[in-house]
Hints:
- The protein is α/β, with parallel strands linked by helices.
- Helix content is 30%, strand content 20%.
- The mean pLDDT is 95.
Amino acid sequence: MNPRIAGRxxxxxxxxxxxxxxxxxxxPYYPEHWSPDYWERDARRMAEAGFNVVRMAEFAWDRxxxxxxxxxxxxxxxxxxxxxxxxIATILCTPTATPPRWLTHTHPDVLRxxxxxxxxxxxxxxxxxxxxxxxxxxxxxxxxxxxxxxxxDEHVVGWQTDNEINCGFHECVCPNCQAEFRRFLECKYGAIxxxxxxxxxxxxxxxxxxxxxxxxxxxxxxxxxNPSARLDxxxxxxxxxxxxxxxxxxILRATNPDWFVTHNGMxxxxxxxxxxxxxxxxxxxxxxxxxxxxxxTPADGAAATAAKLDMARSFSGNIIIPEQQSGPGGQKSYLHxxxxxxxxxxxxxxxxxxxxxxxxxxxxxxxxxxxxxYWCGILDHDDVPRRRYREAQQEGREFAALAPALxxxxxxxxxxxxxSPEQDDAHRAMLHGLPTPxxxxxxxxxxxxxxxxxxxxxxxxxxFDGLKALVWPHFVMCDGxxxxxxxxxxxxxxVLLIGGRSAIxxxxxxxxxxxxxGPLAELAGATVEEYGMRPERYYGICMPGSxxxxxxxxxxxxxxxxxxxxxxxxHLDGLPAVTLNRHGDGLVLTVGTxxxxxxxxxxxxxxxxxxxxxxxxxxxxxxxxxxxRESAEHKLLFLLNHDEVYHTVRGLxxxxxxxxxxxxxxxxxxxxxxxxxxxxxx
Length: 682
């Protein structure tokens, strides 16, 4: 087994497969939590479950550098060798999410300061700030020492940087951040006059004469803050996270270019397109328990997890799952349900169905102390293998058999929904009580998912090749370059859907002078003559049948478009609410309301009809999910039953279920939590 990366980097795209030579299967492992008596037995049991990789050391800085400057990597060298004897490779992690106490005690300036002014104290994780040079220097030093110690270790195949950067914490207002924010702005704008223009500081006498006058824009003010300053602060938070990781990656690559590098993330205030440029493969930690047990129906929980996986894949292509939930997980105030028999495996397959080329169950064995002593792993506290271990064994056999067909495939996407953390941040700077674009677009993703449509997320800088439809979900910022790419897509035959309250600002987060949707008006073939909140209280929409609006209304004025839906009620009665414009060989639909649970179903039907999108399967119950992974050689249809009862899928084309080995055609019955992976006949 050689899970190292193969070949040269591919161009970034949401349909990029990973370049892993083997499907990764394993778990995070914490030998520092257990006596040496466990290590050999753990490795043997892992091998018997089909593991080929473990992830180690992300929280063990104090074990590897117990005293400043004195390093001891023998524990992880010994455990990596034990794992290697059983055919299990090691992914090491830079341990910078948990700096040791000697560092935070000697240099308290490395600790974060929360927006309310409280300085973090030692005793948790991610309590150090990425901005300051002192902590960055210590982080580079431990990364360099680890890299040198394992440079020639044949069992180490890759690295994970840090752990879940920006998880729990995003903002910091420490003196280091104050100084770094000013440097960031000076580098970006060059002259203070340019910053004043970009921030619109003429409002409320905010004009600055020099960089030292600029404070961090945290909410310690009697009135609202400057939205352009807030957006630049969010951009700054991404900048220091990207820089912090990049410094580690440069050390790792210089030490051994054969290692692959990943990270486990997807949190706020990070531009993951830029962040992923330094990685070979992006990792997303998938915990369906956060969504499944609070959902109204099994389908709702599954759809929410599917959306998260698709968002993660949008940044650089196929992903790995460094942490896949295996048991009931919880910390101080909550504890998830224990997955039902078969559900752990089902969740793993859902990750694979949405582009995962590796699964690592969190965790191998449940820890007996600390903040996560009830974040349960494959094995319980007593180390007795039970049904979750047997499920892992089943996964190991199946993943090994699937790998030749699976690797090299990507997830089919017919309808792409644009996804941008920066656009979410621009919205957060002035919320108006409305959901972020990502929160709103998740409702449309859910509606398309329920219709068995091949839906996914696409970053605005990505290519739009092969998409039958593309959705602009209330992004407020727009520039000429993005408009030109959208116009090219539509001229070539694509269908673009523009949501309400779109393209009303420039990239500085200033409201533009042009009538909305500003730069998109020519594409839309319509302008917005009036807008307002809460149309559901006063108005309806006729399509010609009645459909509900939600949260926002745009009164549209067609220029070249035709009205295909009108407002009903009040002074809007009979006036355009939805328009259709022909542009080149394509179409532009403009919907003058917000994506929400009430509106997403009819918007999905509208989009599917005009884009002529066919479902992946003709007929499937609500709790059965369908996705397709494909390459030039393989078409793999995933069917996942997220319910505790039997369901039948109908209208299937001929193929072979790679898990059962049985031929499939027409109808297939799925048992509770059952999965089918059907290789379709070419």
